[in-house]
Amino acid sequence: MPIVVNLDVMLARRKVKSYELAKAVGITESNLSLLKSGKVKGVRFSTLAAICRYLECEPGDLLGYVSSDADLSGSAEE
What we know:
Elements: E1 3-5, H1 7-14, H2 18-25, H3 29-37, H4 45-55, H5 59-62, E2 63-65, H6 69-72
Antiparallel strand pairs: 1-2
Helix pairs in contact: 2-3
Protein name: Helix-turn-helix transcriptional regulator
Domain HTH cro/C1-type: 20-62
GO molecular function, one term: DNA binding
């Protein structure tokens, strides 16, 4: 997938534990773990906003894009 989740990097920079963020944002540690690993197909903007608010960052600090040939195929599934 061309979208890369850098949440673990931001957690380390802010010295915040996953369970602390999950509790503050109102999601389960399991769901946060799935988000960190990039194994989710989507994230609610409200959840993304809450994470950014707590970590004092921008969405671009958490998400990145890596170009791949799959992007050019027009396929929405991977």
